[in-house]
């Protein structure tokens, strides 16, 4: 296991970012004397030679789309190197372990993956039992490993250049973007979130100096913008502010974005000017819906009125709010979906969203906390293990049909580089048609007026949604084709 190539670490999708989950794991393995080889199949080929050479192969699957691609890669590895131990690690690996362990893989790890994976490698190297805490296998069942990791500075030297990944688009300028995490897990328990059944409300702060060292490495590699990919950057707001203040002091021209709950934006609104003063361009927030029933069923912790307040607060602070949406759930209605569209049109917020967000449908993976609710038996169907989700149908068939139409519109628009504003109104026309109402896209565009130009990444943010479009093979995925791969 000590020779270069014996351990192969693979990433297949991290939202257009240089793969953090390879860099973090590499650091720990290298400290222990191993020499892993890292490959990101989103931007570079996975060769048959690399597969045949490896004895242990770990595939990072932090989200649903990555899992789909990761299982395909695992099946290819199994055909080319049947003796290699294949491990999937990440949120969705453990949730879907029962299906994956049937054929594709040998082990799955969820939660804080570094130490369990290192212990697994050492057990395999020594010929010992692989009944390792935090490692789920065919013969040894283990839950998620949620113990504090001995954090190290991520090792990025082996990874493809940052220029091969998503960029910040700001006016007519494209800026190289990096990515890091200042916390792991989340103290909140939104019922649809894949973090919750793994971390159960716990989170860990990464030491400030580790985070800053990782930023320093990426700035040296050309990063002009940093994405903080924490599930919620303000799980520890004091920790977050200390990091951005130190980053801004050292790199005053480097900008950043972060993901923050609507609830936290209201609770800690006094911190928004500090965020802007230290280089925050935009904040991603999981708005999901304006339907109060949906927000309650998902335990989001905010209301429709709170969403309007968050837009006003961030705009006042000079920060763009970029909401992620989950508009297709069993509790959304056609009326409330149209209300959502009206909110973005009337508030002049259309430019704040990517059209694909208007198509996203609820995913219910095995272990989802939604399954623990008393009313889940009213709408949850059978588990489709191969699709990594429990099936469900909307009580109104028109909503399922609308979702398919919106997904197709968003995918075609992305492929044909259609103006997102025009796509939005095409989607609204489709929704109003389902309600039996006429709608003029041309008139709507004229009423809306001039476009706002907002800073954004060239790769959309997704979380825990059911995919609604086809994916290319891992070796041929481009940034544009990944962008429409819904993962909520």
Examine the coordinates and then state which fold CATH places here, giving the name of the CATH topology of the largest domain: pyruvate-formate lyase- activating enzyme
CA gyration radius, whole angstroms = 22 Å
Mean pLDDT: 93
Strand order of the largest sheet: 14-13-12-11-8-7-18
Shape: globular
Number of domains: 2
Number of helices: 18
Strand content: 15-25%
Stretches where pLDDT falls below 50 for ≥5 residues?
Answer: 463-488
Largest sheet: 7 strands, mixed
Got a strand count? 19
Query: In the CATH hierarchy, what is the class of the largest domain?
Result: Alpha Beta
Domain Radical SAM core: 172-405
InterPro entries: BchE-like, Cobalamin-bd, Elp3/MiaA/NifB-like_rSAM, rSAM, rSAM_CUAEP, rSAM_horseshoe, rSAM_sf
GO molecular function: catalytic activity; cobalamin binding; iron-sulfur cluster binding; metal ion binding
Cofactor: [4Fe-4S] cluster
């Amino acid at each position: 296991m000590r020779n270069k190539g014996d351990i192969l670490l693979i990433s297949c999708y991290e939202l257009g970012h240089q793969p953090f989950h390879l860099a973090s794991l590499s650091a720990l393995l290298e400290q222990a004397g191993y020499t892993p080889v890292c490959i990101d199949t989103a931007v570079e080929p996975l060769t048959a030679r690399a597969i045949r050479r490896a004895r242990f192969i770990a595939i990072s699957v932090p989200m649903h789309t990555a899992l789909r691609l990761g299982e395909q890669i695992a099946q290819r590895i199994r055909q080319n190197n049947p003796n290699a131990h294949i491990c999937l690690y990440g949120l969705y690996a453990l949730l879907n372990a029962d299906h994956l362990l049937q054929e594709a893989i040998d082990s799955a790890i969820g939660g804080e993956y570094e130490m369990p994976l290192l212990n697994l490698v050492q057990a395999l190297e020594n010929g010992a039992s692989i009944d390792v805490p935090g490692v789920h296998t065919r013969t040894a069942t283990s839950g998620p490993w949620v113990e504090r990791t001995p954090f190290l500075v991520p090792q990025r030297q082996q990874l493809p250049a940052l220029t091969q990944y998503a960029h910040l688009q700001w006016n007519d300028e494209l800026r190289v973007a990096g990515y890091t995490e200042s916390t792991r897990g989340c103290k909140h328990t939104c019922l649809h979130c894949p973090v919750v059944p793994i971390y159960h409300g716990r989170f860990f702060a990464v030491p400030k100096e580790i985070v800053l060292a990782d930023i320093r490495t990426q700035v040296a590699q050309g990063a002009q913008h940093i994405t903080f990919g924490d599930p919620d950057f303000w799980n520890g707001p004091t920790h977050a502010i200390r990091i951005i203040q130190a980053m801004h002091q050292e790199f005053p021209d480097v900008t950043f974005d972060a993901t923050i709950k609507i609830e936290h934006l209201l609770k800690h609104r006094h911190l928004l000017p500090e965020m802007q003063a230290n280089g925050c361009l935009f904040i991603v927030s999981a708005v999901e819906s304006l339907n109060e029933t949906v927000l309650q069923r998902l335990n989001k912790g905010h209301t429709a009125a709170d969403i309007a307040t968050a837009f006003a607060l961030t705009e006042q602070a000079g920060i763009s709010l970029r909401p992620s949406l989950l508009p297709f759930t069993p509790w959304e209605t056609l009326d409330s979906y149209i209300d959502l569209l009206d909110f973005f049109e009337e508030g002049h917020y259309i430019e704040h969203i990517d059209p694909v967000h208007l198509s996203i449908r609820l995913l219910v993976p095995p272990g989802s906390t939604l399954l623990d609710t008393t009313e889940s038996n009213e709408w949850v169907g059978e588990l489709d293990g191969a699709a990594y989700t429990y099936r469900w149908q909307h009580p109104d068939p028109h909503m399922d049909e609308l979702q398919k139409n919106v997904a197709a519109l968003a995918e075609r628009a992305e492929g044909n580089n259609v103006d997102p504003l025009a796509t939005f109104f095409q989607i609204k026309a489709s929704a109003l048609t389902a309600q039996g109402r006429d709608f003029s896209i041309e008139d709507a565009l004229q009423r809306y007026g001039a476009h706002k130009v907002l800073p954004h990444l060239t790769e959309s943010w997704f979380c825990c949604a059911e995919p609604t479009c086809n994916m290319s093979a891992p070796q041929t995925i481009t940034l544009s084709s990944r962008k429409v791969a819904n993962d909520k």
